[in-house]
Amino acid sequence: MPGHELLGEEEKQALIDLFNQGAVLYRYGLNDRRKNIFRVDEFEKAMASRVGSKHALCVCNGTAALKLALMSVGVSPGDEVITQSFTFIATVEAILELGARPVITEIDESLNMDPEDLRRCFSSRTKAIVPVHMAGVSARMDEILAIAQEKNVPVVEDSAQALGGTYHGKSLGTLGRAGIYSLDIGKVITTGEGGFVVSNDDHVFRRSLEYSDHGHEQNPHVPRGEDTRTYWGFNYKATEMQGAVGLAQLKKMDEILSKQKQNKRAIKERLQDIPLLQFRSLPDPVGDTGDTLIFFLPERDQAKALARKLAERGFGTKNLPDAVNWHFAGTWDHIFKEEKRLFQGNLEARWPRSADLLRRAIALPIMVKMGLDRCDALVDAIHDISRTL
Ligand SMILES: *Cc1c(COP(=O)(O)O)cnc(C)c1O
Predict the structure, then answer these.
(1) pLDDT mean over 137-164
(2) Is residue 302 pLDDT above 70, yes or no?
(3) Chain centre distance of CA 197
(4) Measured in angstroms, how far is the CA atom of residue 172 from the centroid of ligand 1?
(5) Which residues line ligand 1 (CB under 6 A)?
(6) Taking a C-beta distance cutoff of 8 angstroms, is the pair 137, 283 a contact?
(7) CA 254 to CA 6: how far, in whole Å?
(8) 3-state secondary structure of 302
(9) Cα–Cα distance between 348 and 336 in angstroms, integer?
């Protein structure tokens, strides 16, 4: 949960500079007053180059980015979109906002989309597949991409939590037709609110750009007030403040990733000798951002007890188990009413494998600034507590 840990002088100076250079906070227009400084444009170029994508569009948040990406690959009302049972609720909200129906797969021991279950979720109305790289760890993308190709359905990667992560050397978010990142407070880098659509596909980029800006085509031959348009859109634009802070944060990303990975390695190595702990499987360990360390206990009650005793000693968990209700489809009674009825009121029974894995899981947040002392103290606490379980 690193970006917000490192918000400091560089981001502050970037905002002061923005005010000193004309105080234009809007991303378009007023070229003279802003002295031709366009921070969102610069941030987009830097992001495209960092992740290796032809296009990168910065928007107001990650949920909007996902809606734009899905719409741009062709999702419309009545379609089905397949995603996974373990994700932040925003993934499903973006699908619902388009009038489409979310179809939910089980997860495997990577805690991401289970490719075998993905096969079972297709119908003639399936319009997109959204694997989510939860907590900086990739899904099994080789298998998912192969199935998508066979079925001729586009993949949109929800990489909200996985900026800077890779899969076989390629940036997460750039493997499918489109990908998204989030820049909210819990993500790798942060601008308070913020998001990105990335794609190598010109149509996906143009459609996302135009919809995010009331249909503006940004025709270079006319002033903005006379801009041309083909479709109507909405307003999901980012501000120059997000662009300025984002540029400063992006410069810190390599440091963030290397510190996290170092801390995660130090903690994980020293937990190997506890036979009770089974670690989350990593489809590409090299590409893990190091954001979170997740393991399973044999029994639900043991996981609950471990989390409680860690909290007593001042160590928090990250989403599992503390915010499982915002991250597991099996708790979303307000969304999956039909499924709930089919399973006689027990929505978790719809995804039994996911429920079993998630209810036995502990997720430890890895901080950039935790320092080796804090890592050691955490490891000691887990050793102590595990003897009592
Ligand atoms: C954070 C997040 C989002 C949404 O991003 P916001 O920028 O908060 O709108 C979408 N999907 C996942 C998996 C996330 O963690």
Answers:
(1) 98
(2) yes
(3) 11
(4) 15
(5) 61-63, 66, 87-88, 90-91, 132, 158, 160-161, 182, 184, 195
(6) yes
(7) 12
(8) helix
(9) 11
Of 58, 161, 182, 326, which is best to mutate to test ligand 1, by the most ligand atoms within 8 angstroms of its C-beta? 182
pLDDT tens per residue across span 172-217: 999 999 999 999 999 999 999 999 999 999 999 999 999 999 999 9
Burial group, residue 221, by CB count within 10 angstroms (0-12, 13-18, 19+): exposed
Residue 1 has pLDDT above 70, yes or no: no
Q: What is the DSSP string of 325-367?
A: GGTBGGG-TTT-HHHHHHTTT-GGGGSHHHHHHHHTEEEEEPP
Q: How far is the CA of 21 from the centre of ligand 1 (A)?
A: 32
**Could you identify the atom of ligand 1 that is nearest to the CA of residue 161?**
15
The residues near 90 (Cβ < 8 Å, ≥ 6 apart) are 62, 63, 66, 160
pLDDT beyond 90 at 382: yes
pLDDT above 90 (res 115): yes
Which residue, chain included where needed, has tokens 């760890």?
137
**How far is the C-alpha of 254 from the C-alpha of 290, rounded, in Å?**
12
**CA distance linking residue 263 with residue 374, whole number of Å:** 10
Q: Six-digit token pair at 81?
A: 């979109």
Is a pLDDT exceeding 90 seen at residue 2? no
Average pLDDT of the chain is 97
Full-model pTM: 0.98
On the 0-12 / 13-18 / 19+ scale of CB atoms within 10 A, 381 is middle
73: Cβ contacts below 8 Å, ≥ 6 apart: 127, 128, 154, 156, 177, 178, 204
Number of CB atoms found within 10 A of residue 52's CB: 14
| Ligand 1 center to 141 CA (angstroms) | 20
Give the tens place of pLDDT for each residue, 239-272: 999 999 999 999 999 999 999 999 999 999 999 9
Tokens of 125: 């109305």
Q: What is the mean pLDDT of the segment spanning 221-247?
A: 97
Average pLDDT over residues 271-288: 97
